[in-house]
Amino acid sequence: MLKKSPVLLFFLAAGIVLSGCSQADPDREPEVFDKSDIAMGTVVTERIYSQGEDRTSEVLDLLSQTEHRYLSWREEDSDIGRVNLQAGKGRVPVDGQTAGYLEETLKISEESGGAFDPTLGELTRLWDVEAEDPQIPSPKKIRKLLKKTGYEKIRLGMEEDQDWVELEEGCSIDLGAVGKGVGCDEAAAFLKEDPKVQGAVIAVGGSVLTLGDKPDGTPWKVAVRDPRGGQEELLGVLELEGEHYVSTSGDYEKYFIQDGKRYHHILDPATGRPADAGLISVTVLGENGTVSDGLSTACFVLGKEKGAELLAGYEAEGIFVNQDKKVYVTKGLMENFELEASGYVVFPLSS
Ligand code: ADP
Ligand code: MG
After folding, report:
1. What does the alpha-carbon distance between residue 90 and residue 214 come to, in Å, rounded to a whole number?
2. Residue 195 pLDDT > 50
């Protein structure tokens, strides 16, 4: 059975507010185009308001292409697949898109002191928290694989207008923690090129893009899931105007429980074990999808204090939910966030 998108979207339609689109007709209502399907291994939910053509299928195709051409570690002929195959064998030419996303990702690794590490693929597969009968790996196996991790084992450069990536032997790159955010960036670039598109909200799993305006002029409403509720239960709602990139990482996405302890899919690169910094969910709003997605994973590993420092460096905003059901919201987001779930308490957080 397919998983539902962890972020629920609420749309209120009516009226029209124009956003400076030269080719939009002020007297015409935009059409509403909705689509929900699978891409990038997750549920994609789209709503596009446009006076032109339905672009929802093209967005889905674009997301699939982004995965197949650039990001997928599962496919041997994607850029990342080829780099992984050639680990230890020198420079591998890659598309400028791949290099750009990798560069942005490695910056998050650096800024987070390695809490975000795009070389954890082997460890993720060792833990395999989604297996039918998941097991806690032995410390010896974890130690062995940890030797082959570290973002500094990836090098990036350009020669004669050709981007290249070089990876140390035995390592592999896994961009799972930014893939959905990259998808949001690709979708945003595509939709911005269509002057008839007046507004859009696209959820790629736990990463959401809002663009332009809603026809009735009310803000977009992006719901954040209750990390300890059912799939359709909300922690609260974020009201946002215009272009935003919202990503959530949590310990409720993929996990198993053994002896009362939860083992989830976000690993601490320092220990090779599920991150244990006291948080159960982190939502980030950053300058683009890649950054928001990367920062939400990094903050989950770092915890509230260090996470808030990292966000400040990026001028990003966030919502940190800790194990005691305390919800810390950065000051720039306090007015946008409305708590809905009972049992939680909201506190302002200076980032
Ligand atoms: P999701 O994929 O559920 O949206 P995230 O964006 O937080 O959640 O990414 C988690 C995925 O990223 C894991 O499944 C794994 O492939 C990879 N990963 C796990 N820990 C880290 C980490 N510390 N840094 C970077 N990637 C990680
Ligand atoms: Mg992420």
Report:
1. 49
2. yes
The CATH number fitting domain 67-176, selected from 2.30.30.60, 1.10.3980.10, 3.40.718.10, 2.60.40.420:
1.10.3980.10
What pLDDT does 153 receive? 97
Ligand nearest to the CA of 279: 1
Q: How close is the Cα of 294 to the center of ligand 2, in Å?
A: 5
Tell how far the Cα of 318 is from the centroid of ligand 1, in angstroms. Answer: 17
Determine which residue's CA is closest to atom 16 belonging to ligand 1.
176
Domain ranges of the chain: 7-56+180-349, 67-176
Name, in order, each residue with C-beta under 8 angstroms of 166's C-beta and a sequence gap of 6 or more. Answer: 90, 91, 92, 154, 155, 156, 157
Q: Which residues contact 241 (CB under 8 A, 6 or more apart)?
A: 213, 219, 220
Residue 90 CB burial class (10 angstroms; 0-12, 13-18, ≥19): exposed
Site residues for ligand 1, CB cut-off 6 Å: 116-118, 120, 124, 174, 176-177, 180, 205-206, 249, 253, 265-267, 269, 293, 297, 301
CA-300 nearest atom, ligand 1: 7
Q: Which CATH superfamily is domain 7-56+180-349 in?
A: ApbE-like domains (3.10.520.10)
pLDDT tens string 154-181? 999 999 999 999 999 999 999 999 999 9
CA distance between the termini of the chain: 39
Mutate to test the pocket of ligand 1, among 67, 116, 117, 120 (most ligand atoms within 8 A of CB): 120
Give me the percent of the chain exceeding a pLDDT of 90.
90
Please state, in angstroms and rounded to a whole number, the distance separating the CA atoms of residues 114 and 118. 9
Gap from CA of 203 to ligand 1 centroid (Å):
17
In whole angstroms, give the CA distance from residue 260 to residue 158.
49
Q: Is-same-fold flag (7-56+180-349; 67-176)?
A: no
Give the whole-angstrom CA distance, residue 248 versus residue 243.
Answer: 17
Above 90 in pLDDT, residue 128?
Answer: yes
